[in-house]
Amino acid sequence: MAETSVGRPAVATAGPAAPAEATAGPRRPRFGRDALVTVGFLLPALLLLGAVVVYPIVFTVVRSLYDANGDTFVGLANYQEMFTSPRTLQALQNNVIWVVFAPSIVTALGLIFAVLSERVRWSTAFKVTVFMPMAISFLASGVIFRLVFEDTPERGLANAAVSLVSDVFREPGRYPGAQPSGDALTATPDGGFATEATFQPGDTAALGLVRIPAALVPDDAQEAVAAPPTAADAITGTVWLDFTRGGGGQAGAVDPSEQGLPGVTVEAVGPDGTVAASATSGADGAFAVEGMSGGPYALRLTPGAFREPFGGVTWLGPALVTPAIITAFVWMWAGFAMVVIGAGLASIPREVLEAARVDGASEWQVFRRITVPLLAPVLLVVLVTLMINVLKIFDLVLVLAPGSVQDTANVVALEMYRVSFGGARDQGLGSALAILLFLLVLPAMAFNIKRFLAEQ
Amino acid sequence: MRLRSVWAVLFVALSLLAAACAGGGTDTTADASDPAATGSEPAAGATGEDLSGQTIEAAAVWTGAEQESFEAVLAQFEEQTGADVTFTSTGDDVAAVLGTRIEGGEPPDVAILPQPGLLADLAEQDALQPIEDVVGSLVDENYAPVWRELGSVDGELYGLWFKAANKSTMWFNTASFTDAGVTPPATWEELQSNAETLLASGVTPFSVGGADGWTLTDWFENVYLRTAGAEQYDKLIAHEIPWTDDSVKTALERLAEVFGEEDWIAGGASGALQTDFPTSVTQVYGDPNDAAIVYEGDFVAGVISGETEAELGTDADFFEFPAIDGSPSAVVGAGDVAVLLKDSPGGQALLRYLATPEAAAVWAGRGGYTSPNKNVDASAYPDEISARSAEALTTAEIFRFDLSDLQPAAFGGTPGQGLFQLFQDFLRNPDDIDAITEKMEQAASKAFK
What we know:
Chain A is of the alpha+beta class. In chain A, about 50% of the residues lie in helices and about 10% in strands. In chain B, about 55% of the residues lie in helices and about 15% in strands.
């Protein structure tokens, strides 16, 4: 440990490398007593490694050349199937997205947290909070985020937050989802309704609506008036809920016990398309658009009353599922990156930073030109470690993606599991996928090992 | 000195014990020969037999509450006969557990299998005893003919159906129905007009748990059994007709009459695909409720009482899956079949006992159980709903097993694959029936290869 270069953050030192060098050091005849002793010491470790690492790898390679049952040799057929199946290609594509985004976001966030937490007063509390999700298993955090990403704003935290904001800018109407009960009204592109028939002053109009839950009818609403008073200079009428609770009503007619819908704005639109006058329906649904002459006018219900509340983003739908799962991953691992980078930060020589500040560098310049370059080795290790971690991502996707989008959210490790242990139980193809995953992880592993050796 | 005396005492004790055991052993054989002689005697046998000292082993998949209930059924048998019945729970992988036991020559006397496919497999391996002489007459007396058929392999009776599930029940929110002024529909057309009325009253008619593919295949199976009939249904199970068959297309068209109406499904198709089965139930019985009707099997009752505030019978009720174009009453379901693995008199007696309404009544009274036995009195069930569900099952003219359960697992039973996934695709886009049946056929031929 003492030979770890000074000033370099001691992230990890490869254990096994040390004895290997020790034996290589003294140059003695190859087959002496020393060699025997060496072999004697190494044998248990070699046997163990052979049994739990080498043998499974070799077996998987061999198994991948056999069919589902494992008794017919099929050559490279499994590999061919693997690379032609759209599911694997989708999985590979997702893995690429994961590897590109997840580790870099986590590392960037970790760096920011590490640098900032050095400055805040409650840095320990902050660090503990950010690090806490690491104590939760992937499975449990999958379940947690399943709840966060629930579809309806009443149940899902993410959608509750979004709807809170969106409702401020776009107030939902009193009667969302309402539809005309008959042919009198048709929907307009802006979400309101308009009559196809036209009216003259002195006419009355019956504008029935349905699909309004009883709970949304205001308490002050009264029974709808069947025949509102007419006036020579006004178009009068009723906007009412054309549905008799308990059934039995007649569509298009104001039946007894049917209720008026207060607060709906009715506009009279002239032949040239301009709004001549407007009125708002009362507690009994009656309205009177007054001060009218000429005509004919069409009536329009403005969309304000019928605007649907924000329905929620389908986070776990086909479009957003992978970004949503990556968010959960970032939540879990940002703490890990922060702690490792923080350790690296602590070992940066203070003099360098102070010298820079004395020379007049701004904080941003210090961060950009001094801190980050000095931390580069640590950042690289964190990034590569996370890449390996992300390549074999599995449980989070399995738990978080609903069955209907698991194909869209698929990753190689999940596909391997589904093929080998799902219904098909094709462990030949599963082994081929395992080998693919192994080959994908290999460069990152090699890079890490090379770095460790270089640090020795 | 002292040590030696301890040994002496132990020796005496042991030899006494051995003698006792030997005595017991001879007793058992004497008893055993007795009922064996009367073994072929039907009906009256079960309760009257004296099997004291005999040990019988019964194996089934049940654990937890189900195991307790079945043990209560067995306890009554022990009381009546004096036999000693041990229950072995096989856990989920019943085929593997029984297979090893049979291979080792030590199978349990009686096993209760959750899959009809396993019944056929074991019968073909000659691992089962024919039970025509044991319970044949009891089956005719207590069961609708369809159950004899379902318990037979190549015309020989091997299985006695002891437990069943009714997967042709539609559960509704009674308040929503009252509010809209609709009554439970008996036909598909009535179901559709009810849906229209419910929608006008301000509540979405259907809740569909499309995130789980099996709820969708269950929908299809019920429609298919009604539009294509039992014969075609059996052919489709065996893949004797392709999934591109016109009968499948017709059923999908009828199903699209519901699935194709975006407004009729809570959350629309995309919302339904995010809804798992328990949520699909709770959103019908929430306050306010998001939908009025949810289709699934009788086990919905368990979700209602366990996860919602709704009271079964007052807030929640069910109607049978409606008939389509005058189809006869039909039930899609599941069941557990009891088989005899050893030709032991005790096992025979237990099987005869399980065929009686008295045995079924014990579990029925404890709840969570439907008996295929038509002579189980409605009053044996703890509430009116389970009694009605059981009645629908025992009196149905057609009973068929869940089709997807009988398919190769990769095709019919794996989330995200085969039928589960394809029906999710169908829910997403119910218009292109030709393309989806094409894909179903491809997946099926791969699985049946």
